[in-house]
């Protein structure tokens, strides 16, 4: 049985080839290239050649391409995110050349019609992503939707409908394509008071990519101020600093025959930010390696 590879997310518009060469000595096994809202004027053909060469030199590979924005928002920013989704979909086979740990993968937010409840966005989401799902299937590529809320709830929001199992049920019923699934991480389950392990047991067949990010609950703040007070009662963090048993996560992933990657999502742990970012990532990498064993 293949053990999931452990890598990290890197920014696609910040010389990722050089970043790969710089970070590879620390033992990252794969790389997830991400963009925020748009790929801009990035030459994906040139970028793929450089990135794939750099990864090959280091004995690693590209696990996924991502763009995080709202393709359903109905304005120029949304149009840019949708264009980026489409272009990354076409480019994915050139980037994700090592398919031992899964087919080429493109991920992002499912999007949301701003200000509406989850069910009210399903048809708009289906209209946008049904053709992309068909194209993904033709290309042998998978599409995965991250369950990050960015403050969205079931009733309203402006970023993403793929925020919980109730939404996933609606999405996969509306668009029953094997080419679409989830980009999952325990962080968002902990923040929602869900049990990540119980959720993983149910949803593992739909999980195409895992983000290495966790969260911790400040029980004292929660007890004193409750869910709706001014005090923040949860915080995102690196694996090893949160409330999730990652050894159990890896055990479940392998038992469920998950054949993909776990890529650390940085830039979220306030205790390991700025000049401490890389040290924080390396601590998380070592922790995840030990959990995988």
How would you characterize the overall build of this protein?
With 293 residues, the chain is α/β, with parallel strands linked by helices. Helices cover 41% and strands 18% of the residues. It is globular. The model has no long low-confidence stretch (mean pLDDT 96).
Extended strand count: 10
Q: Taking all residues together, what is the mean pLDDT?
A: 96
Q: Could you tell me the radius of gyration in angstroms?
A: 18 Å
Number of domains: 1
Helix content: 40-55%
User: What structural category characterises the helix and strand content?
Assistant: alpha/beta
> Order of strands across the biggest sheet?
1-2-3-4-5-6-7-10
- Taken as a percent bin, the fraction of beta residues is 15-25%
* Silhouette: globular
CATH superfamily placement: Divalent-metal-dependent TIM barrel enzymes
Number of helices: 10
Taking pLDDT < 50 over at least 5 consecutive residues as the criterion, the unreliable ranges are none
SSE string, helices as H and strands as E: EHEHEHEHEHEHHEEHEHEH
CATH topology: TIM Barrel
CATH class, please? Answer: Alpha Beta
Named at the architecture level, the CATH assignment is Alpha-Beta Barrel
Distance N to C terminus: 13 Å
């Amino acid at each position: 049985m293949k053990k999931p590879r452990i890598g990290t997310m890197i920014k696609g518009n910040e010389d990722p080839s050089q970043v790969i060469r710089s970070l590879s000595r620390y033992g990252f096994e794969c790389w997830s290239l991400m963009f925020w809202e748009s790929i801009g004027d990035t030459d994906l053909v040139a970028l793929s050649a450089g990135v794939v060469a750099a990864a090959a030199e280091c004995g690693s590979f590209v696990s996924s391409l991502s763009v995080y924005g709202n393709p359903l928002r109905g304005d120029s920013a949304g149009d840019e995110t949708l264009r980026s989704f489409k272009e990354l979909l076409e480019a994915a086979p050139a980037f994700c050349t090592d398919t031992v740990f899964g087919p080429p993968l493109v991920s992002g937010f499912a999007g949301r019609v701003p200000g509406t409840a989850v069910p009210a966005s399903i048809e708009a989401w289906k209209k946008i992503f049904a053709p992309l799902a068909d194209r993904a299937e033709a290309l042998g590529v998978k599409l995965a939707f991250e369950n990050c809320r960015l403050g969205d709830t079931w009733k309203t929001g402006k970023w993403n409908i793929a925020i919980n199992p109730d939404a996933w049920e609606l999405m996969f019923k509306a668009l029953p394509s094997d080419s679409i699934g989830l980009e999952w991480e325990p962080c968002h389950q902990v923040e929602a008071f869900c049990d990540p392990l119980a959720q993983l047991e149910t949803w593992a067949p739909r999980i195409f990519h895992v983000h290495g990010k966790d969260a911790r609950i400040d029980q004292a703040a929660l007890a004193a101020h409750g869910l709706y007070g001014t005090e923040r009662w949860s915080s995102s963090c690196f694996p090893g600093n949160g409330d999730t048993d990652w050894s159990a996560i890896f055990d479940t992933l392998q038992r469920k025959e998950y054949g993909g990657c776990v890529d650390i999502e940085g830039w979220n742990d306030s205790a390991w930010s700025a000049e401490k970012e890389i040290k924080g990532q390396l601590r998380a990498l070592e922790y995840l390696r030990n959990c995988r064993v």
